[in-house]
Amino acid sequence: MKWLASMRETFNEKSTYKAFLLSVLITGLSYGLYKGMMDNFLVEVVGMGEMDRGVTEFFRELPGIALVFILAAFYMLSAESLYKVGAVIMLVGMGMHALLPPTKVLATLAICMYSLGEHIQLGMKSTISLQYAREGHGGRALGIQSSSSQIGTLVGYLVIVAAFSFVSGEQPYTLFFVLAALLAGVSMVSSLRISGKSQTDENKRRFYFNKKYNKYYMLEMFYGARKQVFITFGPYVLILFYGANTAMISLLFAITSVVSFFAAPLVGKIIDRIGYKTVMVADTLILVV
Fold first, then answer.
1. How far is CA 74 from CA 8, 124, 202, 205, 225, in A?
2. 200: pLDDT confidence band, cut at 50, 70 and 90?
3. Contacts of 267 (CB under 8 A, 6+ apart)
4. How confident is the model at residue 5 (pLDDT cuts 50, 70, 90)?
5. Which domains are assigned to the chain?
6. Helix (H) or strand (E) holding 267
7. Is residue 240 a contact partner of residue 43, using CB atoms and an 8 Å limit?
């Protein structure tokens, strides 16, 4: 098949890229199940309101802020080892959702735990992809890795859409948390087959500031804050005020995933042609409109 031939041309045959990509794909599938039902689960089962959701999101993002310190503390570990650690932590977080009572504190703790593993893996995926790529094929390797994750996530969303569309009465959240945890376990087992000693990116273990980029830093900070508020409370508004069910929210995530999949390369070409600054300004104006 052409896609198999493309992978063989892209990755070094001596590397364990197949186990790595399988782990990425299954992690994406597990995440799609998890993300597709999480907001409705927090509203309908845990009973979280808007304020509670904001607090939960704060703790979910803490691992991202702490990532630079985590990587610095474990600088002696290879990217493969850190990726495996992330897989184990994600499994623990997903298992907590499946097994623990759905209280606000325990749900927040489970979300924080899963997010910690997710952020650790996120920092290692690109490094491993580039290390396993043949010379001159780094960009293609990153594309294949990203596509594997997106395809898995999209399938997870669609499974939630199908399952929750035909279920009446009590929604099977626990069942799908168990399924997501099992998939996280399969992904972890696959990650254990990954071998190699890829060095982590030193730039991700330290802060770098330059005064001439202050405007860019401010724009990125406001962009991140705006994006986080929308991602966090957008689904909540639809659920609380418009009665969107789990299938509808997951379908919207799936549509967004498909649009992003095809739009990302186009946006990249536009940035190359007219510059990042113009695209950022246009993005902000479109949002205001």
1. 32, 13, 12, 10, 29
2. low
3. 279
4. low
5. 2-199+217-257 (1.20.1250.20)
6. helix 246-274
7. yes
